[in-house]
Design goal:
Layout: H1 9-19, H2 27-38, E1 50-54, H3 61-66, E2 70-75, H4 78-84, E3 87-90, E4 103-109, H5 118-127, E5 129-140, H6 146-160, H7 173-182, E6 186-199, H8 202-211, H9 230-235, E7 240-241, E8 244-257
Parallel strand pairs: 1-2, 1-4, 2-3, 4-5
Antiparallel strand pairs: 5-8, 6-8, 7-8
Length: about 260
């Protein structure tokens, strides 16, 4: 485990457990994002028989099973793992229970960005792959929700004179391939897709983040009730297009192989 605990793992688990009952409402969005990642499977002629769906929230395991794979679905939350499809398993993201050379394919879809010791987890995932096994991952990168982050910081500072982290920090795209290389993956590649979401109401963005289990879990977050005017003030600063409020996801798609 890393020395710097950036994220509150207990809160992350609670958020994902709560979201297990609501995430189905976001299935069209999550399925579309997962399809962008799983498209990479069409670029290889390798046959995968056993797969690990790490945190896919129901958007990965069914697709892998449809391709004929035996799938284990792992998540920090047992409830989320149970609704994901496949054989459900609740795990500690930084002390994984898998033996060496267990899977032909591992897919981590939008599930790595709340892990404190990400290099350590990637090493464990690489070890869990059989030789010539494939690792596929997606991850929000720097620039994701940047307008929301800036608006919240400015609104809180104007109202209270203080600032608190309200949006998770994300890695730079340049760091993603380096993380794979550091973990021992062969042929590491990372590219990015930028996806814009439009909302009739800015509150809908916050509701969707909660429904997906993406509520703020930064360890240094404020536990105080924010000023009543803070969120309305901040949300009105979000950019608009065609009368709708915009939010951006810069999703890194990462691939690496076990040698």
């Amino acid at each position: 485990m890393s020395g710097a605990e950036i994220f509150d793992t207990r809160a992350v688990r609670q958020h994902r457990a709560r979201a297990a009952g609501t995430v189905a409402t976001l299935a069209p969005v999550l399925d579309d994002l997962a399809a962008r990642l799983l498209d990479r499977l069409d670029d290889t002629k390798t046959t995968f028989k056993t797969a690990l769906d790490f945190g896919g929230r129901g958007s990965v395991a069914p697709s892998l099973a449809a391709r004929g794979m035996a799938v284990v679905s792992a998540d920090l939350s047992g409830a989320m793992a149970a609704r994901a499809g496949g054989m459900a398993l609740a795990v500690d993201g930084e002390a994984l229970p898998f033996g060496d050379k267990t899977f032909d394919l591992i897919v981590a879809h939008l599930s790595l960005h709340w892990i404190n010791d990400l290099p350590g987890t990637l090493i464990q995932l690489r070890r869990a792959l059989r030789p010539n096994g494939l690792f596929l991952a997606s991850m929000p990168t720097l620039g994701t929700l940047q307008d929301l982050r800036t608006a919240l910081l400015e609104a809180e500072h104007d109202l209270t004179g203080a600032v608190n982290p309200r949006v998770s920090p994300f890695p730079d795209l340049r760091d993603c391939a380096g993380l794979l290389q550091r973990a021992g993956f062969a042929l590491p590649v990372a590219d990015v897709e930028e996806i814009e979401f439009l909302y009739a109401s800015p509150l809908a963005l916050l509701h969707e983040l909660r429904q997906a289990g993406e509520t703020n879990a930064v360890q240094a977050r404020s536990r105080k009730i924010p000023p009543r005017a803070m969120f309305p003030t901040a949300l009105e600063q979000l950019p608009r297009r065609q009368g709708r409020y915009m939010a951006t996801l810069r999703m890194a798609i990462m691939t690496g192989w076990a040698s």
